[in-house]
Design goal:
The chain is an alpha/beta fold. The protein is about 25% helix and about 25% strand. β10, α5 and β11 form a beta-alpha-beta unit.
Length: about 350
């Protein structure tokens, strides 16, 4: 059996998103049915809707920053009940038996995680459809609890932008006394600043745009460095134990590598393309520096992040939009014309 769902979908790489009716499965024994309240807009939604990474499946209903309320649960579900406020991020399943899954790192599942949209269900082989829709059905193992202490619409981007920046900060044990930097002040970067500051670190923002100092300090930066200014960059040479690089496009890592201390790490969380220009190996060898990467986080880690956010009152800075304005929002994301994340009020789907 299936249920008919309203949503917004891309029918091809070149057509705008538009209203679309599609089928979801009825709840299995371990499923949670969620009425979607809000869904964040991630730049990866655009990449996949436009097939910029290859492998896109159409029709595609994007959206993997989902906040909603439980409307039904399967008979084997004990962790959630009707009325609970919950979230769904980038994954809805994994093999659950490989070394990564057993370690709570489902995002690195050896067999490949099942993504919230643009994927294929491991059990019934139906396509997965995301949060630009009225309802979603997800295994209870991939649903997280969201505190009603948080502004629910502003909590939606925590399911991707939040966990993407939280996971590497936690993995590299950033905390009180840590001296770190964040490259880029966007959807990911502003969350990196908030988390690092709340963890107790001394935080620097690297930016190419003059005039962001006041905004960066509001978000948690202790210092701001204009990365196009050679004197400012020289002044922070060999300073940082960790740099969180949130830039989504190819860019030169070499100037930032020079600001790492011995044993320092730069972690890429925004760029999937090849490094260009090439990295100067001397910058790495002569400081025992490391270039690393990180992708979202596991389910337990995502819950830990959400609990931390509730304790410290951390959410994303957002602009709420109606569903009918999603195509205009995509164009604004591309030109960085948003501070710092769009969130769709899914109640607007009824009139879209």
């Amino acid at each position: 059996m299936t249920m008919s769902i309203r949503g917004y979908a891309a029918q091809s790489a070149t057509t705008p998103l538009a209203a679309h009716q599609f089928e979801r499965r009825d709840a299995r024994a371990n499923d949670v049915v969620i009425d979607i309240l809000y869904c964040g807009v991630c730049h990866s939604d655009i990449h996949q809707a436009r097939d910029e990474w290859g492998g896109s499946l159409y029709p595609m209903v994007p959206g993997h920053e989902i906040v909603g309320r439980v409307s039904a649960v399967g008979p084997e579900v004990s962790k959630f009940k009707v009325g609970d406020t919950v979230g769904v991020g980038c994954m809805v399943d994994s093999c659950q038996h490989c070394a990564s899954c057993n370690a709570g790192l489902e995002q690195y599942c050896v067999e490949g995680a099942t993504w919230t949209y643009n994927g294929i269900d491991r059990h019934d082989k139906m396509p997965t459809f995301g949060g630009y829709s009225e309802r979603i059905v997800v295994s209870d193992k991939f649903v997280v609890s969201i505190s009603d202490k948080l502004d629910l619409k502003a909590a939606a981007p925590l399911l991707c932008a939040g966990i993407t920046t939280w996971s590497p900060l936690r993995h590299w044990n950033i905390g009180k006394g840590s001296k770190i930097a964040v490259i880029g002040l966007g959807g990911l970067g502003h969350m990196g600043l908030k988390f690092a500051k709340a963890m107790g670190a001394d935080v620097t923002l690297f930016t190419r745009s003059p005039g962001k100092e006041q905004e960066a300090r509001r978000l948690g930066a202790d210092h701001v460095v204009l990365s196009t200014d050679e004197k400012q960059m020289a002044a922070v040479s060999r300073q940082f134990e960790f740099i969180l690089d949130t830039v989504p496009n190819p860019h030169d890592l070499n100037p930032y590598l020079a600001t790492l201390a011995v044993n320092g790490v730069i972690c890429l969380v925004g760029q999937l393309q090849p490094l260009d220009p090439p990295v100067n190996a001397a910058q790495v060898l002569l400081g025992r520096r490391s270039i690393s990467g990180s992708a979202i986080g596991g389910i337990a880690e995502t819950q830990e992040m959400l609990d931390f956010c509730a304790e410290h009152n951390i959410v994303s800075d957002i602009e709420v939009i109606d569903m009918k304005n999603i195509n205009a929002a995509y164009e604004r994301v591309i030109t960085s014309d948003v501070r710092y994340r769009f969130v769709i009020d899914m109640a607007s789907l009824k009139s879209a």
